[in-house]
Design a protein that fits this description.
Shape: rod-shaped
Structural class: mainly alpha
Largest sheet: 2 strands, antiparallel
CATH class of the largest domain: Mainly Alpha
CATH topology of the largest domain: Tetracycline Repressor, domain 2
Distance between the termini: 147 Å
Strand order of the largest sheet: 1-2
Order of helices and strands: HHHEEHHHHHHHHHEEHHHHHHHHHHHHH
CATH architecture of the largest domain: Orthogonal Bundle
Number of strands: 4
Strand content: under 5%
Number of helices: 25
Number of domains: 4
Amino acid sequence: MPSPQTVASGPEPRSPREPVVPQIPAQGTRRASSEDASSAHREGSRPGLGTFRRAFSKASQRASGCDPQEDTGLLRRSSRLLFRSLRRALDNGPAADQTQATTGPGVVHGQEVPSRAMDGVSAQSSTGAGPAELEGEDKSVADLITERKLLAAFEQLRHFETRLVAEKASRTFEQDPTGFARRAMDLCLHYDGLAAEIGAIVLETLGPDGVDAAVLAELARVVRAEEEAHPEPPADGDFLCTPRHWRQHWEDAVRRSARQRVQQVSAGEAPGAAEGASGLAQLLAELGCLVRRDLQKVQLEVHPAYAAAGYPAWEAYLRAFHGAVAQCLQELAHDARGCEQLYVLLDWASNVYSSPDFLGSQDLALPSEPLPPLLAPDVWARLESDYTSFLETKIASCFDGILQVEQSRWVAAEAPEVLQGHYHTPLSIDVHMLVAEHVKAAGAISTELEATTLRICTRALCLFLPRFEKAFLESGAVSEPNLCANINACEELRTHLLARFPGSLEELEKPLVAATCAFQKRLLQGLQGDVQPLFKVLCTKAWLTQDVLQPLLDKVVAFAGHLEHVVPPRAQETLQEVHRYIIREYLAQALRPRERFRGVERVSGSQKMGLDAQAIGNTFQGLGSEATWLGRAIPCVADILGETYKDDIRRHLETLIRSYPDIRRDHVLAILALRRLGHRRNQHLLTHAQDLLRAAAKAGGPGAAGGHVLFEEIEVPTSMDVLITCI
């Protein structure tokens, strides 16, 4: 095969019989190099019209239904280069004619471009077609496209297409299918160039320079004109007059534009590289500003321009940006780490982006169909699951921090403050704020996440309370003020948290009550340790002549001064427990005296007990104790001890048993032993007492006295006097 001719400024030769297939510039291609282009010479039969029809039909369909990822800006520049290269080749005069005779039309510098027939200089066509078929009176279609006179360019293309279809129908090209193929290829390439220019206009619309409203209106009109010109594919399947789907091409370009705009923000840095949650929050804030600014521009400038031509643009841009933001958030969600970053994503998606005033206007038209979720349900569920997992660890860590703060206060021996008359510790405020803050934050995202967060806080608090109780009671900071402050804290948590989250924190009731009881018990133990030695001098001969009870009551009054700074329910409980303890210990000393009284001393002892009972009653009444049921215990025993009319002892005994159903037979024996009534009377009284005790047991035992317990906790040792009384 002879070697191809070489022309200095012309293209490399191509066999005239080789079909010319239009090439759409691939993504990323900037320009074609003449040094890299080569043609393969093949011997073969002359291709038929059907072959060209199929080839150009595929090329045209690829161009009109391009990949959404195609860089239409590059396509625009490539198409302009194609048109200008053609004109330069045609302007080279005879050399170009000679080169075209060798290489065949439509090939310039190794690329297929519109042939000379498109610029009216092909006189060799067997059809005898006249010049300037794609050229107006002053400008070619390529120039019109370059100048963005889209409607004029389309009208010329439509005119040429109509002529080409008519000539094909008249079998003008039956003897020269190559000529028909060249002209059809030129038509397809110009259509593709016009489509590329549409995409370029869309991409520039939201750029810094923008696009003139008249251009946008003309774009809308040319899309509608194409739809009217090509309403449906030809019945014979011909590639001419095939719908170009420019509306779909425009929508794809809008989506690419929105995606590129969003990627300007999201491509900067990923959450893992940002400065934690603050970096992610800043990135999302920038994303929101860009989307808001672009959509406001669409609303104020772009949409009116399209609407003037009867073309809806707002919904297309809204859906495009929604999809771009959704894709961006999917990528950010994949790399998000830590509780804070996950919450920032969830909060931005549910509260910022989904807010009605996100775009700054309440008058924007909503899309005809609801927008899809910003995050897919499975992604949203995974984010919530990951968030709650991190949240459990974070809340547990927060409770550890609260305990450390309290321990540092104990080490520093800081006395609790008195706020609104009550001892106060930061514990209740810290816990309340921790729970309320996280539950409120979760509630801003979803009701389900709020309930989950509340359960996490409840479990963590249930584990924290026993740890706090144990750490405090084992510390060296145990004192009446600190114990009272902790009682107040537990009571505040129980009332305020349960009131704020009704029906959600019932399981907190048990650990809070347990902690409160433990602090109350330790508080009482401190008082008992102070006053217990003072009970030893009661019911002695020295007691008959001295006021040994007053020092004990003074300690009780001093102790009650701390209870004034305890919340009322717990303060009353503790005061009544102190009242019960004093009466119980007094009776315990009376029922097991160190010395026995006879005659006058017994009567004096009875009177002394009455005076002590009155002093105790007056003291606790002054302190505000509501345990009035305790007031009859000591007087009843004193009446039995000092009663001179023995038959009335039975009446006093009945009063005692009815008032305190928890009294036992041993207690009755110990009381009778103090009196020494004799065998027969003792037996008679014991029998009657047992009948009363059985009747009280049938009536409900301690419940008959409102659940009050007094004698049940008094242990009475068996002494010789008691044995004699029994015998």
